[in-house]
Amino acid sequence: MNKATFSAIFLVILLAMFGDGIFSVKQIEQAVVTRLGEPMRVIKNPGLHFKVPFLDTATFFDKRLMSVELSALEVTLGDKRRIMVDAFGRYKITDPLKFYQAVGSENRVLIRLNPVVLGSLSSVLGGVSLSSLLSDTRVSAMNRIRDEVNKAAKGFGIDVVDVRIRKTDLPQQNSEAICKRMMSEREREARELRAKGTEMSKIIKSTADKENAIAIAQANTRVQILISEGELEANKIYTEAFSKDRKFFEFFQSLEAYRASFGSQNSTFIISPKNDFFNVMKGEFCR
Predict the structure, then answer these.
(1) What is the pLDDT, as a whole number, of residue 92?
(2) Per residue in 19-75, pLDDT tens?
(3) Which of 131, 133, 171, 277 has the most CB atoms around it within 10 Å of its CB?
(4) What sign does the CA torsion over 271, 273, 274, 277 have?
(5) Residues 114 and 163 in one domain
């Protein structure tokens, strides 16, 4: 191997060592430098930093506030009601070395934090009623959960800034039971309304029949009164006419009798011709 080749190989190795020995920490980052898996130092200041090439490894962690989506949890409240709780948390890595040792990476935060938060949720909400959870008093309950979780999370090298419930819902079986109960109540209300409607229909029909019968009776009474008054007036007129001209009255009565008797074409009379009924026809009435 000549001197030029040796110099080129040496330069390449030197550049590789130099490139692997220098790393940059951003403003939003912090790093833990490990040597063959063993932590050596923590870097929180941004800028260029050095490590032993090929032996040291820099693991970076975010300084910013981060969120973690927690698993849905079914909780029994203080008033024995069961609800489904969907929560999330916000945290910040405050001790990158402890975080590296306890958690390993940011992708594993949920694995370590989820059981802690869910346990605290179950414990705290177990003493809270549903009405309290839906009112302003839930803030104090969420602060208690945050404090409990933050205390436990110190061992992970993180600071839990907030824990919030995104939404609450009833379990599936409860929702189905409520729907069935609502359907039963609506059916009961419908039956009651139909029964009331039928009863009102009978009352209205009965009242209408009664009023109709009364109206007909009153009308019939009025008709009979009018007929009686008419007959009375007719008799009065007849009496007055008879008293003024008896012969004319008898003549008129005979004509009315003829009209009633001879109205049909098939009328047959068996009567003596000398009967007074035919006096007008015989001309004897005017004598």
Answers:
(1) 92
(2) 567 888 899 999 999 888 888 898 888 888 888 887 888 889 999 998 888 877 778
(3) 133
(4) positive
(5) yes
Phi, psi of 35 (to 5 degrees): -120, 110
Examine residue 185 and state whether it is found in any structural domain, yes or no. Answer: no
Does residue 184 lie within any of the structural domains? no
Same domain, 50 and 79: no
Q: What is the CATH number of the domain that holds 161?
A: 3.30.479.30
> H/E element holding 60?
strand 56-62
53, 97: one domain = no
> What is the per-residue pLDDT for 30?
92
Beta pairing partners, 180: none
With a CB cutoff of 8 Å and minimum separation 6, the contacts of 242 are 249
Mean of pLDDT values over 194-217:
87
Residues 123-165 have pLDDT tens digits of 888 888 777 777 777 788 888 888 888 888 888 899 988 888 8
- How far, rounded to the nearest angstrom, does the alpha carbon of residue 240 sit from its chain's CA centroid? 87
CA distances from 72 to 83, 114, 123, 133, 160 (A): 10, 10, 15, 17, 19
Q: Are residues 57 and 71 in the same domain?
A: no
Q: How far apart are CA 279 and CA 169, in angstroms?
A: 111
Residue-number span of the structural domain to which 286 is assigned: 245-287
Residue with tokens 């191997």: 1
**Tally of domains within the chain:** 4
User: What letters, b where the CB count within 10 A reaches 16 and e where it falls short, cover 58-94?
Assistant: bebbebeebebebeebebebeeeeebbbebebebebe
Helix extents (H) in 46-105: 96-102
How confident is the model over 154-200, as pLDDT tens digits? 888 999 888 888 877 766 555 555 566 677 777 788 888 888 888 88
Distance CA 125, CA 119 (A): 10
